[in-house]
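Please decode residue identities from the backbone states below.
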């Protein structure tokens, strides 16, 4: 399983998104379940899945899924297609 697939599975699970509705260009305002608990769950899932501990200010600043890919890429986690 690629890192992109792992992230997709994680985000679908955390934010209760159906596979047919998921897009990496989804933004926070499109997702009803993206609340404070969702932010914490996302950060914990990223730590468990990728080993990167997001700082609280990083987690709160995330506005969309693509931004997560960009952040993790800067931390050395590869997201090749």
């Amino acid at each position: 399983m690629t890192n992109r697939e792992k992230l997709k599975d994680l985000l679908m699970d955390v934010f209760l998104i159906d596979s047919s509705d998921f897009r990496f260009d989804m933004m926070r305002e499109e997702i009803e379940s993206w609340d404070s608990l969702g932010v914490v769950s996302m950060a914990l899932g990223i730590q468990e899945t990728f080993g990167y501990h997001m700082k609280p200010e990083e987690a709160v600043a995330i506005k969309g899924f693509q931004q997560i890919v960009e952040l993790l890429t800067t931390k050395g986690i590869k997201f090749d297609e």
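Observation: Helices lie at 3-15, 36-50, 56-61, 65-74.
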